[in-house]
Amino acid sequence: MKNNFLNFDLSDLDLETQSTRGRIVRMLPDAHLVKIGGQSIMDRGKAAVFPLLREITRLRKKYRIIIGTGGGTRSRHVYSVALDLGMPTGIIAKLGESVSRQNARILHMLLASHGGVYVPNDHLEMLPIYLASGSLPILAGMPPYEYWEEPPRVGRIPDCRTDAGVYLLAETLGVRSLIFIKDEDGLYTGDPKKGKKVKLIRKISVRKLLALDLEDLIIERSVLKFMADAKHVRRIQIINGLKPGQLGKALRGEPVGTIIYKNESL
Amino acid sequence: MIKKDTRKHLPSRLMRESLVSKEVIRGTQIRKEFRILPDVNLIKIGGRSIMDRGKAGLENLVEEIGRLRRKYQLIIGVGGGARERHTYSLGVDLGLPTGGLATIAKAMSEQNALMLQVLLAKHGAIRTPQEHFEELPLYLANGAIPVITAMPPYQYWEQPPPRGRIPPHGSDTGMFLFSETFGTRPLVLLKDVDGLYTADPRKNKNVRLIPRIGARELLDLNLPGLPLERKVVELLLQARNATEVRIINGLVPGNLTKALQGKNVGTVIYKDEK
User: Fold this and answer.
1) A16 part of a folded domain
2) How far apart are CA B191 and CA A196, in angstroms?
3) Any CB–CB contact under 8 A between A157 and chain B?
4) Could you tell me how many CB contacts below 8 A there are between chain A and chain B?
């Protein structure tokens, strides 16, 4: 094996790659990754799910769409039981995985007649053919960390759940846009469901949002951390999936909902 | 537009809660976490430092492990070594994303795991994929040595590192996170140095072995190179079960035995923050 780096330590190689410039491959530059919330959309049943799916099946004729799923109330239930039993974070992460997989299979059944394909993690390399054939690939949002989930700084709820999983996949695939569909108009300064006085934030940089250190967020904190280090996905959009037409606008690049972006200087 | 809460909830303490809320997260903190495999000794064999040496690195070690398993429960993993580094350097040159690098690199630590299992088969070693982890108690009770894939399955979901492009969750980190989740005895990392030095002993002469050091203390020393993945030291700070890691020289016969007996050998890095 002739290689310039061969005699180096991994830490040396790490240093070496820090100075590596040059483009990183974008695998799916034309695809849009859309995450459908668990508690916010799926758990509402057909009242919320059907109109959204109708919109997606219309839009997929024009856009290449990949769907990622969230967990929701069943994740919260299994987390509660496991937390009560003193389970470590790695087990809680593994338990959470099953719920986002259920939701992916539910969406597959509902979208099958429109080309909805459930894509297990080890079939990710098939995405190009699914997209080329006009299918709607559906992935479970939870990252496959399972037993290997990092212990969080505080508490035992895994830091990397479905928002993080979908974000990291978008970053690796180098997709055109990443849209989170939730049941609020976007990011507020607090939880609008708790009835406190809160303000909608239309557009904010990752750095500013991290600095605000809000008590609650509509998106997992780990996503903001990854965004700061990311090479491809420099902008995410959070929209209200209960309002018809928002997804179409977001796919067209219109500023609906909240846009979180990364400063170039970061 | 739906206004009232039409979500179908399941009653639980997290019902309707945002799992991002700091208050909710704080509420899940406990003093003592469940230990799934508290008697297991977790061993990681270095890829470049031991495995790539072939017979010279492994012959004695295999026999020592064979002797040890009669007394101790053992689970073993091994790193990817030179081929993993080659994969990274080639992949970086080609512009592959970090998640892609992590996905292809895993195969190298799987190759080494297979070879290790072959060498240790006569001592009861079996390859155990993660889908079979629930069977670990059975294997251990029957005196088997499960050989697991050390590289964690982050794959396409690997996180972008703050600097550079190399996946931050390598095989040391994979084994460390296994020890944290399963609550095993402290992870023993077998390398080709006696432990942690004040500088790289292969490059400098004037160095001192550090027998015991806190993770925060070590990070603050800001050493240019470490004999283990930096991520392990960072994760030690927030670990609950895995509050210690030991690095020993796996090329010295008897070192692993001493480590499992709890004797003073190599370097122990421990969690020094509450």
Assistant:
1) no
2) 56
3) yes
4) 245
